[in-house]
Amino acid sequence: MESILHAVKGYMYPNEIELQWSLLIVLYPFITGLVAGAFILASLERVFNVVAVRPTYRLALLTALSFLLVAPLPLQLHLGHPERSYEMYLTPHKSSAMAMFGFVYLWYLLVVLLLEIWIDYRPEIVHMAKTSRGLKGLFYRVLTLGSYNVSPQALAIDAKVGRFITIVGIPSAFLLHGYVGFIFGSIKANPWWSTPLMPVVFLFSAMVSGIAAVMLIYMVVTWFRGLKIRMDCVDTIARYFLYAFLIDFSLEMLDLIHRIYEADESFKSLDFMVHTKLYGSQIIIQIIVGTLTPILLLALTQIFRMAEAVRRSVYFCAGILTLIGIFAMRWNVVIGGQLFSKSFLGYTTYKMGFATREGLLPSILLLVLPFLILWFLVKILPPWTEEEARP
Amino acid sequence: MSPEETTPNMMSDRRKFLKNGARFVLLTFAGGAAVERILSGEPVVRVLADSYTGTPGYDVSQHWWGMIIDIEKCIGCGNCVRACKRENDVPLEPFYFRTWVERYHVPAKDMLHPEAEDHPEVDSPDGGYDGFPERYHAGDGSKNFFVPKLCNHCAHSPCVQVCPVGATFESPDGVVLVDKKYCLGCRYCIQACPYGCRFLDPRTRTADKCTLCYHRITKGLTTACCETCPTGARKLGDLKDPKDPIHEFLATHKVQVLKPQMATGSKTYYNGMDASVR
Amino acid sequence: MKGGIKDVEHFVRAAVLVGAGLCLFLVLRGFLVPKDFGVLGHYRAGALADIAARPASFAGRAACEECHSDVAEARKGSKHEKVNCEACHGALAAHAQDPGSVTPTLPDTTKLCLTCHEKNAARPVNFPQVDPQEHSGGEICVSCHKPHHPEIE
Questions:
Q1: Residues of chain B contacting C124 with CB distance shorter than 8 Å
Q2: pLDDT tens digits along B117-127
Q3: Inter-chain contact A98–B184, Cβ cutoff 8 Å?
Q4: Does residue B32 sit at the C interface (CB-CB below 8 Å)?
Q5: Is B31 on the interface with C (CB under 8 A)?
Q6: Which of A148-154's residues contact partners 24+ apart within 8 Å by CB, and which partners?
Q7: What is the pTM of this model?
Q8: What is the ipTM of this complex?
Q9: Segment 46-85 of chain C within 8 Å of chain B by CB
Q10: Domain ranges, ordered by start, for chain C
């Protein structure tokens, strides 16, 4: 720890030298962003009747669920007293955006995701309940809640309710991730965070990352299954991907231009930080590699006619680069916001451990875990029973 | 369902369902709320105000604490930093301070440094715990001075605003405190403080900061930092006590608070504060 | 074609489940929220007493002068009159509580005085400060200045 002291440049208030929020807190908005974005993609089909993305509908929901289940874990690992976290449910402080977390999370998990997944899968659940035996059968029978009614009338009501849930789910997804942006954006003490644009920027970057993630998962899973990737599906996804990205990029540019123009008391210090400590993660990784390149790639597919195989590769690259870029954005906000002193006179460094509670290893494991959960979910709630296998 | 398919039976079925459903929902809420009420007891019996702190005779509603820091008197001896760590058992590592002292060196204003107050050199070696080794030369036209820092005990504290569970709060007598038994250690309050006065105690893993020696001031003593300050640069003040010297001081000196644009309602008033102070 | 209810039966059951969960939450909440929470504000009122219960380490000048009134007399009129005892002698509440059990050690005057009086550019100009070599050739301060009444008459 003493080594951090030597790494301080200029002056930091003594209590600021050690960073408070670590890699785990970078991970949390990244994960909830994927949840929100995956759900928005799913809602494209249900609410806006964009039929072409239907093959990804169930996969998007299961992806959202997998990531949502993992989302509280980085927070729990970070808390000084995770065993007291239930206090947020007992005595939430109404003026604190963070207090909203428990309720927004539970609402989204139960009412939006679980209910919607349940409604969409009911025919399969009822079928599996009737035909499976043993523990598996018990599991499906419990899921039916004792009702085996899959008559056309019941399913019609299910569809209507499902559509309604999805409509409610869209603002809920906005809230689930938007409030995280507000947690940062409402801190007047920190000029790197404090801006009304923060929730909106977070939201659109979440949509971009979620769309990219679902598209990538669909492509990889389909390839694994030896099936043909439906180009009408990925072409449509790529279009929405591009639109969301253009909005996201514009918002981030607006924030930047506004800062440079107003050049308030914090500007010199922040500007210096961006050109030195954050140069690699912000200019190179987030902006050039993670935003401009994928936008360019996606735009090229819209401007020029490209062969299917070429388009697939381009989409794949754009997807990977985007996820890296959006992760870098979360890093630059969270870590970047703590690298400079509130005295505007100095900088510190972030020392990331490896096999420590808030280190790199747990974070990697937390990023792998949702895929394990997804694999499990795909086994018990297959997303493609209704799809024909195409050569 | 088309109108032809609905029968009178089905209609009453639907109505029955809706009625029962509404009844069920209402009963759930009413029942749950009633049980909660019963179990949590009636509003806690109102205890007399003067026993909230456990000190008989100290009435929280009769005090409103603040602090005066007179920069013109501070000599940077570090007594306050040492006394605070001693009195409050603060970890001795250089990352945890309930109070610290900063030294400012503002270079002489000249053609080469037209905005000298924008570029002060500031240092705080171990918070000033062992004093300040000499680094500058008096008489070269520069301004050099010490600025003690501590929790400002803001009346509109942003740290209290962001606590998700109510573990940090402003007491009725104006002291911002942390409930160590309730704090989750989420560190949001540390992020929200504009003055950098909070830290996470590595031993209790809860947020920690200057308590204005609450355990002393409720017993008629002054804070440890004020007690050991040899020049009277730090003075505790009770804004609700008409006989307290703070009133006269505030009326006769031009004082400032740190970062007034944040409108935190800081109750730590600095006399003789230069424009370069952050 | 009957069966309006049958078609939403599963929703009803789901709602019952959620309702039961909510009930359970409200019941648990009644048990778990501290009784004194919310009395004074959005916090546990008992925290005030918890924090105020800490024992003091510094006794405070008044406690010292109860017994050491001779020193208090000696300091009257001197420049050090307003400097409190524990500023130099350290935290002595334990000694004030039970003088027999805790014997304070005298501060090290080769270092103590310089803590405040060593020349430093950031100290106020009119505050008495010296370079020890220039001032006394390195001789210790107490050979000329009595700490409780430092003026040399």
A1: 72-75, 145
A2: 788 999 999 99
A3: no
A4: yes
A5: yes
A6: A149/C6, A149/C7, A149/C9, A149/C10, A150/A122, A150/A123, A150/A126, A151/C3, A151/C7, A153/B1, A153/C1, A153/C3, A153/C7, A154/C6, A154/C7, A154/C8, A154/C10
A7: 0.91
A8: 0.93
A9: 47-58, 60-61, 82-84
A10: 2-53, 57-104, 106-153
